[in-house]
UniProtKB/TrEMBL annotation:
It comes from Neisseria iguanae. This is Glucose-6-phosphate 1-dehydrogenase. The gene is zwf. PROSITE patterns: G6P_DEHYDROGENASE (PS00069). GO terms for molecular function: glucose-6-phosphate dehydrogenase activity; NADP binding. The active site is at residue 238. Keywords: Carbohydrate metabolism, Glucose metabolism, NADP, Oxidoreductase. Residues 187-478 form the Glucose-6-phosphate dehydrogenase C-terminal domain.
Length: 481
């Protein structure tokens, strides 16, 4: 297949937030970069009755503003020529006839991508209706947006339903964190650099911290968020993927199944939690009002007595030769002090009698994924002068500045991969279900637990209980080190 695959992209939920804010702007960038086949079409689909012209008017108002770079009127005008609109109600089998006809009328189409940016409860019906008009042929790929289920059983159900009509190699389960350049770079750092790979184990590494902190609160998503919570929204998927990329063994190759085989091994090697052990290893938090900032319970569409977590911290352990004895601390939160996603590897301390003012946890590798993409290795160097003192100094690679070339947004990379049939950055069924299995005892514990989540002040670094989780092991979160 050519690099520019001739495609039809059928975008369900085309009037929704994700399509307008992310998917269409990212497709525009791919268009400008010459990465889309000249004849590739985008078919916006939703149940709203309108024609292409009215849809394009919506795109003009709601999507164009999200194009943050490389904007030009000419490019935009040529991009929107790719877009058409069709009214299709996913629950209405009759509506699919026109869709099938439209897609199949173009014989030169090499790849048909059906992106289901709809609520998961519609996935089964959408797939059945697609299949009824032949839109599950071998050249059709279906993209499923997260959250894929609300627990292990519902996720299995979705996978079974979709699996009735599509083969595993046609199913692209998206986790946009895997589309981030900075996360893919973790594999390059590890497997292309002898000094990192040789030290990437329990002999040298004392503990690992994986953080996704956001400054925003739940905004207008209260209704969705309150039945979802941080564990389902961020931990089961994004943090789990960060963990896999950090901890996996070298894959045989970067082919999809080689990478996914290694990732699933990491999740399966996690020491299982039990309903009881959750009490000691997991912290559930919720942001409280601070100054002008509202607390979670005052947010729109959030019940006043809600226990939904906006913060989670987990102490996880990987039971394999490489990582035995190394705690992996995972945490995420809304309304935190800063917006940052990072991986921090703390190295063991040297038994240092030569430089007695050596700092504990002086050596660490900080891989910052966002907002800046950087790698910082902290080392001790001699303080200039007559004494024999050392001080911690970072060696920094600023990937945003030092590397030439455009760094595509996650969704751009992922959409191109679906169009071109590359599954490496998408989740396989067993991987996803293993992640659900790991978090299930947490959900079960919380379902029975009558203790309210630990409160933390909006724009702080989370509840004290999360600090205590690390203090028990003599550790500190990165911002306190
Ligand atoms: C989404 C979550 O998957 O990821 C959001 O649903 C969250 O709640 C977002 O804000 C974070 O993504 P990023 O790329 O901004 O870190």
């Amino acid at each position: 297949m050519s690099i520019q695959t001739n495609f039809d992209l059928v975008l369900f939920g085309a009037t929704g937030d994700l399509a307008m804010r992310k998917l269409l702007p990212c497709l525009y960038q791919a268009h400008v970069a010459g990465l889309l086949h000249p004849q590739g079409r985008i078919l916006g689909v939703s149940r709203s009755e309108m024609d292409t012209e009215s849809f394009l008017a919506k795109v003009e108002t709601n999507s164009k503003i999200h194009v943050k770079q490389n904007f030009s009127d000419e490019q935009w005008a040529s991009f929107i020529k790719r877009i058409e609109y069709l009214t299709v109600n996913v629950t209405c089998p009759e509506d699919f006839a026109a869709l099938g006809k439209k897609v199949k009328s173009r014989v030169e189409t090499e790849s048909v991508v059906v992106y289901l940016s709809t609520a998961p409860k519609f996935f089964a019906q959408a797939c059945e209706n697609l299949a009824s008009v032949g839109l599950n042929a071998d050249n059709v790929r279906v993209v499923l947006e997260k959250p894929l289920g609300t627990d292990l059983v519902s996720s299995q159900q979705i996978n079974n339903d979709v699996g009735e009509y599509f083969k595993e190699e046609q199913i692209y389960r998206i986790d946009h964190y895997l589309g981030k350049e900075s996360l893919q770079n973790v594999l390059a750092l590890r497997f292309a650099n002898v000094m990192f790979e040789s030290m990437w184990n329990n002999k040298y590494i004392k503990s690992v911290q994986l953080t996704i902190a956001e400054q925003l609160g739940v905004e207008e998503r209260g209704e969705f968020y309150d039945i979802t919570g941080a564990l389902r929204d961020m931990v089961q998927n994004h943090l789990m993927q960060m963990l896999c990329m950090t901890a996996m063994e070298p894959p045989k190759s970067l082919d999809a199944d080689d990478v996914r085989d290694e990732k699933v091994k990491v999740i399966k090697a996690l020491k299982p939690l039990t309903i009881e052990s959750v009490n000691d290893n997991v912290v559930r938090g919720q942001y409280a009002a601070a100054g002008e900032m509202k607390g979670y319970l005052q947010e729109l569409n959030v019940p006043a007595e809600s226990f939904t977590e906006t913060y989670v911290a987990i102490k996880a352990e990987i039971e394999n030769e490489r990582w035995q004895g190394v705690p992996f601390y995972l945490r995420t939160g809304k309304r935190m002090a800063d917006k940052v996603a990072e991986i921090v590897l703390n190295f063991h301390d040297l038994d240092n009698h030569i430089f007695p003012n050596s700092k504990p946890l002086a050596n660490r590798l900080v891989i910052e994924l966002q907002p800046f993409d950087s790698v910082r290795l902290c080392v001790q160097v001699k303080t200039p002068g007559t004494g024999n003192h050392v001080e911690v100094t970072p060696m920094t690679i600023d990937l945003d500045k030092q590397l030439e070339g455009r760094r595509p947004e996650a969704y751009e990379r992922l959409l191109l991969d679906v169009i071109n049939g590359n599954l490496a950055l998408f989740n396989r069924r067993d991987e996803l279900e293993a992640a659900w299995e790991y978090v299930m005892p947490i959900l079960d514990n919380w379902a029975q637990n009558t203790q309210a989540p630990h409160r933390y002040a909006a724009h702080s670094w989370g509840p004290d209980a999360a600090r205590e989780l690390l203090a028990r092991e003599g550790d500190k979160w990165h911002e306190d080190q």
